[in-house]
Amino acid sequence: MTRLATPFTEAFGIEHPVVQGGMMWVGRAELAAAVSEAGGLGMITALTQPTPADLVREIERARYLTTKPIGVNLTILPSITPPPYDEYRRAIIDAGITIVETAGANPEPHMELFREHGIKVIHKCTSVRHALTAERVGVDAVSIDGFECAGHPGEDDVPGLVLIPAATQRLSIPVIASGGFADGRGLAAALILGADGVNMGTRFMCTTESPVARSVKEHIVAATELDTELIFRPLRNTARVASNEVSREVVQILAEGGEFADVRELVAGARGRTVYENGDVEAGVWSVGLVQGLITDIPSAGEVVRRTVNQAVAELRRVGSLIVEPVLG
Length: 329
What we know:
The protein has 329 residues and is an alpha/beta fold. The protein has helices spanning 7-12, 29-37, 52-65, 85-94, 108-116, 128-136, 160-168, 184-192, 202-205, 214-222, 245-255, 260-263, 269-278, 301-321; strands spanning 18-20, 42-45, 70-76, 99-104, 120-125, 141-145, 175-178, 198-200, 228-231, 239-242.
């Protein structure tokens, strides 16, 4: 299989510039290991595990499935009762993880400890200004999320076609393009725009190793790029989720002047988790990207990695063949 070597693959010791997003309730051992075993970079989501000890056990399960590099996503957000982040950080270190994806808050408070233990850090950003801050505090790479992404796209509403080159022309560290990627056409486009790889969330959520219920995956296959909602817009905490009765109700309540308290029960994380576990796509709000409109099947995660790279190579060769050199003389 042909490889695409980029500064990201070389720095992080992986074969292919394809990263599996660190999705809440989805980034578990089987999925992460399958992506890594195929040569990409799989991510276990730390806070999906109830305790730091559970995270260590999940990492051990993944290591049983592959000997290739695996990363851990640690998303740090303001909370009235925050998780024990220090303990999760220590669990990551004690488990021997060498790649961490941070998201949410500024990663600076975590950099010294991670650096001391030789851990490379990818920070997830939704703007160039945040990416520049992450570079300044010493992260090894950034994952830049365009407006198309699932989850939180930020408040600038800049799509990847502009955001990716805007970031790559100002950063000197590897940039991973995220939001709107599902295949090799996207990977080829990201590389041409200056990125060093792609991060795919929704695409990997819709694979056989994903712990999400089959009916949710079938719903993604049947959906189009029009079937998402942007909730929390009036609160300036925008999130892209699947369009269903619950998310549409949330949008309506907030558009009519409602406050977060008025939708708190509708958007409870426990309800969203039941969607993934039980397969009732109307049970709560759940994250999915515009890219679901490009997803037409439920393959293995390894197949996604392999065909994404192979298609990207073919597309890059096709584009190269369009060049017509002038005839001299």
